[in-house]
# Entry
Amino acid sequence: MNIRRIAPNEAHALLDSNEAMVYLDVRTPGEFELGHVPQAVNVPVAVAGPGGMTPNPDFLDECNARFSKDTPLIIGCLRGGRSLRATGALLGDGFTDVVDMRGGWDGELGPSGEVTFAGWSRRGLPISR
# Structure
């Protein structure tokens, strides 16, 4: 499956130029409340459990209840891992206009914890709390 990935600046431009475009934030509600892309919709792809994060069994059902299969979606998370998995799941479920935002909210990290690709908040793009 070929997943299109875009940078946060491109995501911002798409959201500004297409009012049908939806930013789907797949982080936990707690992460979302700390800050998010303006007008973002939060549907967690993973939930906290006793052993750590586990897949949200209702993720696809919640997305199908909220969006039509042709809704243009930009998927984002904290660093890019969960959003990439969520994008693949949505495309596999028949959604047709889905892109993954690289770097997520904060940014991709290298092996020593350094930011190797800045996310939305580190680029000074608009945020909501």
Q: What stands out?
A: The radius of gyration is 14 Å. The beta strands are 5-6, 22-25, 41-42, 46-49, 52-55, 73-76, 98-101, 107-109, 115-118. The chain has a mean pLDDT of 96.
